[in-house]
Amino acid sequence: MSHSGWTPEEKEAAQKAVELAYQREVAALIATLQNRVEQAACPNDVWSLHDFLSAKRHEMDGKFDLRDSSLIFMFATLVKDGLLHVGELEGIEKEKLVKISALARF
Amino acid sequence: MSHSGWTPEEKEAAQKAVELAYQREVAALIATLQNRVEQAACPNDVWSLHDFLSAKRHEMDGKFDLRDSSLIFMFATLVKDGLLHVGELEGIEKEKLVKISALARF
Fold first, then answer.
1. Which of A102, B22, B38, B104 could form a cystine bridge with B79, CB 3.0-4.6 A?
2. Closest to A48 (Cα-Cα) out of A63, A33, A62, A58
């Protein structure tokens, strides 16, 4: 197994962690939407909400990138953004976790 | 004044009526958003809300067309959609109102 390779067990662990982070980000997004929609009163509030949601969708489409070559960077971003703790990446080898932790501090 | 022309007074009346219809449509949209966001629970709810808002914005951008040549059709659409009553188009000449009423029934 090369340093950049992911075993089937690691990929399964990665998949679970990604789903957890994705659910958390969606839950936070729903809370933000509920807050913004509750206070919406004028056309500009609606269209700026639409712009916000367009940007967020684009950002999330890019962030949750499950290609093997992107997993380290993706997890570093998720940890940095507070969507995952490194401790939740159980099942992924130590060397990768060290890289993820280091990148998350940038 | 040709049949297709709009006097400054008519344009002012048209502008006011359009603003009223626009505010009504936005108010209805905000109510719909509040209802949908309140019930949102999963990613699909959020992205389908975004799709809905994208379509609605596109539809409204096309519907509120203030060019002189489009006013009759625009008002007919607003009446047909229940966003205006013909009685709220005070200040616009009778002949135009007859056309608007007729088109709104299509």
1. B104
2. A33
Residue A39 CB coordination number (10 Å): 9
How does pLDDT run across B5-30, given as a tens digit for each residue?
999 999 999 999 999 999 999 999 99
Cβ distance B38 to A42 less than 8 Å, yes or no, reads: no
Residue range B81-89: average pLDDT?
96
Task: Please report the ipTM that was assigned to this predicted complex.
Answer: 0.86
User: What secondary structure letter does DSSP report for A87?
Assistant: G
**CA distance readout (Å), A38 to B43, B55, B99:** 20, 21, 40
Rounded to 10 degrees, the C-alpha dihedral A80/A86/A87/A90 comes to 140
- Give the residue-averaged pLDDT of B70-89: 96
Residue A76 phi/psi, 5-degree rounding, is -60, -40
What are A31's two structure tokens?
Answer: 């809370």
pLDDT of residue A106: 86
Query: Which of A20, A30, A36, A49 would best serve as a mutation to test chain B binding (most B beta carbons within 10 A)?
Result: A30
- Is residue B41 within 8 Å of residue A30, measured between CB atoms? yes
B28 residue type, one letter: A
